[in-house]
Amino acid sequence: MARSIDYGKLMHRAMRGLIQEILGDVAQGGLPGEHHFFITFDTNHPDVELADWLFDRYPDEMTVVLQHWFQNLDVTDEGFSVVLNFGDNPEPIYVPYDAIRTFVDPSVEFGLRFEAQEDEEDDDAEAPMAEMLEPEEDGPRPQAEIVSLDQFRR
Prior knowledge:
Elements: H1 7-29, E1 37-42, H2 52-57, E2 61-66, E3 70-75, E4 79-85, E5 90-96, E6 100-105, E7 110-113, H3 129-133
Antiparallel strand pairs: 1-2, 1-6, 3-4, 4-5, 6-7
């Protein structure tokens, strides 16, 4: 079986690390300037923790806003917990990074979107680089996909 570098998985890990760093900074010093975050996550993720009435209202996904009022933002290697106000009713939630679908800071037009990925074994990470770079003999090589980063530039 041919082995390859799973760039999608590596990018997701790096992007989740970025979210962890951003939220960690906010937990330490608050939101700077006009920054605020819209975080959409999968409420069906097994490690998400939220009140039953919130899960009933948002059975598939939920978007929370970290802007004017939030308390007890705690950031760990696996996810974050925070107390948010839902109609004058403070509620704690816990969101693992793996449950996040989008992370957006509209104040600077920055956003991350996580595409659903199938879990694959991590055996590919142990393949020698030379083996990963060898072309497959089953047919023509696919064309590389070019991704433009211009939409993220100011």
